[in-house]
Amino acid sequence: MTVATSALDYSYAQPSRAPIMVVGDTIAARQRARHAAEMSGFVTLSDLSPAEAIDALEERATLSALWIELDEAPTSPVRRLLERAGREAARKKFGVVIATRLEQIDDVLCDLADADVDLLVNADEMERLAAISLAVQPQHAGSARDVASDASAARLRQLSEEVSRIASTLARLSTASAGPPLSPATMAPPRDDVPNISAEELRTMIRARRLRSTFLPADLFADPAWDMLLDLLQAEVVQHRVPVSSLCIAAAVPATTALRWIKSMTDRGLLIRRDDPHDGRRVFIEMAPATSAGLRRYFQEVGMAAI
């Protein structure tokens, strides 16, 4: 889908601001990030490799934003840069945007931990432009960025998500990862007062939800929170772990949108992030015990009508 960008109003961009530092792990990645930054009307530093960027961050006092574009699995320099980017994001001196592919998202999240950065996954040009507009908003030490007052940024984000939703693949892979089973210590097994639910019933619900996009436009049914909760409940029942990348697929929305939902539900205590004890490069998501209990009681009450 081709999106015309010439009609958009970039008058909010101010060339007098500090430049955006553009970093990429491949030549193509650097070119992509530089193009997005320049389309937004901002001055960029020479596009840098991850190793160069680490040194440049030590020397550069002022930036409008740090843009990191990743095409490949994180190497040692990329991991160091991601850790540094997380620290910079915590200081809130400038915005940090990281664009990567869905295949790399689990590795990238391991290095970022809970850093407050803007993550883009399989992003198109509109998503990149929207992310830049948000990243360069004025930063205030000790407080979160307030972008609600910037009408241009809000319009860009809304348009970006709408374009991504329309262009996203209708056919989605279903349900849980085939990773190692959860241990009893990290599972939330049903207590005596929490009802069981069968894996077959959950598979039927999930399949019925997926079939809707076969007959009607998929964007009519976007409900990422519910789709992810169903996926996680099924994983809990069959004792499978769910990495972030698999949960993004289960959400049936663009991966960048799914990541925002995962973060929101984790911040609210509905979901729990767990590092893989056997592989430090993976992060798993599971439901909090109270979330699991609530879902199970709900399905006991409504049965298959929940579809």
TrEMBL record:
It comes from the Bacteria. SUPFAM superfamilies: Winged helix' DNA-binding domain (SSF46785). This is MarR family transcriptional regulator. The lineage of its organism: Bacteria, Pseudomonadati, Pseudomonadota, Alphaproteobacteria, Sphingomonadales.
